[in-house]
């Protein structure tokens, strides 16, 4: 896993034996064991790393009005009960939510208003809830709805 894995040497003397993985990949999911030997004592702990992946088809950035499929999958072993998608491009109460039995969301004609932060939330039969957030980019025209722009002679027009 090198060079994606590191220990923070500066925190070892303080008792922090955290393992850092950047970037996390799907194949990193699984059980990890840490062993610390101090004098004649051996301490160990086990940590399970679960991984959630969000994939876009076609990949980011998405072109306006082209079919978009967004999939959300997790390494969690229980049965998926529900997948919900939350879109909140603007801070405040403007938000959209979509729920389904699969982890895939279809947007038939993505528009500039679909751009921004999306969160998928997976709910499993064992009551576990897992979520991931990603930023969707849309390539398109975000200008005036009227294609006629007036400008004073001698000034600049955008």
TrEMBL record:
GO biological process: interleukin-15-mediated signaling pathway; positive regulation of ERK1 and ERK2 cascade; T cell activation
Domain Ig-like, residue spans: 50-131
Molecular function GO labels: MHC class II protein binding; protein tyrosine kinase binding
Coiled coil location: none
PROSITE patterns per the UniProt record, alphabetical: IG_LIKE (PS50835)
Gene3D superfamilies per the UniProt record, alphabetical: Immunoglobulins
InterPro entries: Ig-like_dom (IPR007110), Ig-like_dom_sf (IPR036179), Ig-like_fold (IPR013783)
Gene Ontology terms: cellular component: external side of plasma membrane; membrane raft
Identification of the protein by name: LAG3 protein
Lineage: Eukaryota, Metazoa, Chordata, Craniata, Vertebrata
């Amino acid at each position: 896993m090198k060079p994606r894995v590191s220990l923070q040497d500066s925190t070892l003397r303080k008792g922090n034996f955290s393992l850092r993985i950047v970037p996390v990949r799907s194949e990193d999911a699984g059980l990890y064991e840490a062993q610390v030997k101090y004098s004649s004592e051996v301490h160990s702990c086990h940590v399970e790393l679960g991984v959630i992946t969000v994939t876009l088809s076609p990949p980011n950035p998405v072109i306006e009005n082209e079919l978009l499929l967004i999939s959300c999958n997790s390494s969690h072993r229980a049965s998926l009960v529900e997948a919900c998608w939350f879109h909140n491009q603007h801070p405040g109460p403007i938000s959209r939510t979509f729920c389904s039995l699969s982890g895939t969301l279809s947007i038939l004609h993505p528009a500039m208003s679909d751009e921004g932060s999306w969160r998928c939330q997976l709910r499993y039969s064992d009551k576990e809830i897992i979520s991931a957030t990603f930023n969707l980019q849309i390539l398109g025209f975000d200008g005036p709805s009227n294609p006629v722009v007036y400008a004073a002679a001698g000034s600049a027009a955008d």
